Amino acid sequence: MFLKALNIPGSGLTAEQYRLNLIAQNISNVETTRTEKGGAYKRKLPIYQENTGEIQESAFQSHLRKAVHTRLSALHRSSELYAVPKNPAGTGRRFPQAGNSISLGNSGVRIPKVIEDPTPGKMVYDPGHPDANEEGYVEYPNVEMVQEMINMMGASRSYEANVQVVNAMKAMAARALEIGR
């Protein structure tokens, strides 16, 4: 359960790191007037989405599940004080079978796609520029440095908050282990 819970702040850390990389890319292209697609660079924005996908059980998880099942079954046979946990869905299976998908429920956030900001770039009169149009205007990227710095501070603070959640979870797990001694 503890490791499943780490998926939430872990996915937040990954998403915010990706967001910081996009912000850095936007800042580094603030003067790019020509791209491979043609035209000025367009600011990139991440789209966040709740991660409710399913994951495949790894070989280690499969072996661990089998070992736990074997141990719990032996304990159940030797004493009525121990019971093998049942699947809450009531399917009769005690544990997921190897290779089956495991639903993590609400397991954090993901970035399924990155979009380009549709806001038009700023037009600057510079008839000597190689990318100038017929009227002498050059389209510069729609990247505003102030907005990117604000976004960077927000992403950095979100990253730090997720790190604090991970540290708090580690501390709680360590305390729980101390209680069991």
How does this structure look, described?
The chain has four helices and six strands, in the order H-H-E-E-H-E-E-E-E-H. The chain has 181 residues and is an alpha+beta fold. It has one domain (2-53, 104-179). It is elongated, with a radius of gyration of 26 Å. The two termini are 20 Å apart. Mean pLDDT is 78; it is low at 78-105.
Spatial strand arrangement across the major sheet: 1-4
Distance between the first and last residues' Cα? 20 Å
Percent of residues in β-strands: 5-15%
Mean pLDDT: 78
Apparent shape:
elongated
Tell me the structural class.
Answer: alpha+beta
* Unreliable segments of 5+ consecutive residues: 78-105
Q: Summarize the helix and strand pattern as letters.
A: HHEEHEEEEH
How many strands, which pairing sense, and closed or not: the largest β-sheet? 2 strands, antiparallel
Helix content percent band? 40-55%
Short précis:
This protein is an alpha+beta fold. The chain has 4 helices and 6 strands; from the N terminus they run ααββαββββα. It has a two-stranded antiparallel ribbon with strand order 1-4. A two-stranded antiparallel ribbon has the order 2-3. A two-stranded antiparallel sheet has the order 5-6.
Give the arrangement of secondary structure elements:
Layout: H1 2-5, H2 7-28, E1 44-50, E2 54-56, H3 59-78, E3 101-103, E4 109-116, E5 123-125, E6 137-139, H4 145-179
Helix pairs in contact: 2-4
